[in-house]
Amino acid sequence: MTSPATRPFGRALCAMITPFTAAGGLDLDAARRHAAALVADGCDGLVLSGTTGESPTTTDEEKTALLRAVREAVGGSVPLIAGVGSSDTRHTVRLAQEAEAAGADGLLVVTPYYSRPPQAAVEAHFLKVAEATGVGLMLYDIPGRTGTRIEPATLLRLAEHPRVLAVKDCSYDLLAATGVMARTSLAYYSGCEELNLPLYAIGGAGYVSTVANAVPRQMRAVLDAFDAGDTAEAARLNGLVAPLVEAMMAAGLPGTVTAKALLGAGTVREPLQPAGREAAAGLRGLYEELLAATA
To answer: Which of 19, 75, 213, 232 has its CA 20 to 30 A from that of 55?
Structure first.
């Protein structure tokens, strides 16, 4: 179990969806309601405009408007981490500065994608963002999407910067995470729900969860049980959420699509397409089973 001092953004974080209207516009009222409900149901902090938040298809102006609306809804005590990633360092720096001005407590910065820069360029990218603002960074290591990993040696160097505080880990490499955590003060947050408990058990800070959009209390309960010293209960609760995790995150549809289908939270933006009726019904059935089992 990590100490509160090593959890710069809390431990139970939701990668929040971005609600849209039926016409495809940003639905700020729905975003305010959803954010407030997530915090009321146990989320320590919210990550906005990440993968689940459909950041590739929202404009810079929409990202800022979303951040301001959610801040208004949850108040100043809830950490808000703004996704500012792009494949362009200059654009990322500008997004970071705009997020800081809009009230972000932290910045989620993904590895530049498509161009597949070498590690020296990856490191330079993150350092330019860290130097451009006064808020802490959560580095987003998700090579399955970006094509480029943040190598452990790069993380060790980046950890020396005072504003590089955390990693959202989607590398599926617990051995590497263990090594970096042992040698740095970086707070490791699981970005893959199936590894929430394993990463936490070896010293992780918590998670950034898409599934928490639908079941924030159930996701948090796993960590609560572990912190209470009841590892058997933590494992049992983790097993209960696993079927919904698999259906939402590993059944062929993006987490954004499944979360919105389950929540009835409006449209997704193309090129994403909404879940079909059969998939939505299956999600609903697993969701209701989980609610019944954890009532």
So the answer is: 75
Tens of pLDDT, residue by residue over 142-159, are 999 999 999 999 999 999
Binding residues: 52, 208
Q: What DSSP designation does 58 have?
A: S
Out of 113, 114, 140, 189, the active site residue is: 140
Crossing angle of helices 277-293 and 255-263, in 10° steps, is 70
Choose the catalytic residue: 63, 114, 168, 207.
Answer: 168
User: Does pLDDT of 30 surpass 90?
Assistant: yes
140 is catalytic: yes
Whether 168 is a known active-site residue: answer yes
Q: What whole-number distance in Å separates Cα of residue 48 and Cα of residue 236?
A: 30
Residue appearing with tokens 């953004």: 9
Which phi and psi angles does 81 have, rounded to 5°? -110, 125
Mean pLDDT within 260-279: 94
The model's pLDDT over 179-233, given as tens digits with 9 standing for 90+, comes to 999 999 999 999 999 999 999 999 999 999 999 999 999 999 999 999 999 999 9
For 61, the 3-state DSSP assignment is helix
The binding site for pyruvate comprises 52, 208
Return d(Cα 138, Cα 91) in angstroms, integer: 17
Q: What's the pLDDT tens digit per position in 95-111?
A: 999 999 999 999 999 99
Tracing tokens 């079941």 back to the chain, one arrives at 215
- 3-class SS at 274? coil
pTM: 0.96
Residue 131, Cβ density class (10 Å: 0-12 exposed, 13-18 middle, ≥19 buried):
exposed
